[in-house]
Amino acid sequence: MPWAMAANRLSGMWGEPRDVGRGRRVRRHSSMVSVRFCLCVSPRVIAFRGAARPPRAASNGGDTMSVEFHNPAGLAAGSYSHTAVVSGGRTLYVSGQVAFDESGKVVGATFAEQAERVFHNLRIALAAGGAQFSDIVKMNVYVRDLTSEKVRCLREIRGRHLGGHKPASTLVATPALVHEDLMLEVEVVAVVG
């Protein structure tokens, strides 16, 4: 079913936001609640096997935050973790960062130069939210015209900035980015205590 049709159906079942709290009857559909939870929580996300990095804990105004990175048995080990389990803390979503300088001009003529600028921009964005590279729990990387040389270069630069930290990660080859001269874009999710 196309998303627009699904959205229309959901709006009919859940009512419009303006209907809530105004004395209007808002229909609820119990099967929709279970579908929503089924999409959000999978048993595979909850059950873990194999070696895991020890949980990281921090104080959060009396609450405890912990992050556990796992590489379950049966999955190939890489320069990333397959899962990150987070409880407590604040979540910071960083939009895709590209090799733009402060004025919006592309920085770098090579993939390596652009990757360095992207990680520079990530550091600034994370710091603005009170986070650092070690707080990243998920990283999505989009690379235009992906080659094994670009993967090697990206791993080297990422390793230099992240050190031994290995958040859950995805690398996607893409035919284009927002500007024709850009070669990569990186978005992250971080959790801070």
TrEMBL record:
One Pfam match = Ribonuc_L-PSP
Fetch the InterPro entries from UniProt.
RutC-like_sf (IPR035959), YjgF/YER057c/UK114 (IPR006175)
The protein's GO terms of the molecular function aspect are: deaminase activity
Q: An example Gene Ontology cellular component term from the record?
A: cytosol
Q: What is the organism of origin for this protein?
A: Zeimonas arvi
Its family remark reads:
Belongs to the RutC family.
Q: What is this protein called?
A: RidA family protein
Native organism taxonomy:
Bacteria, Pseudomonadati, Pseudomonadota, Betaproteobacteria, Burkholderiales
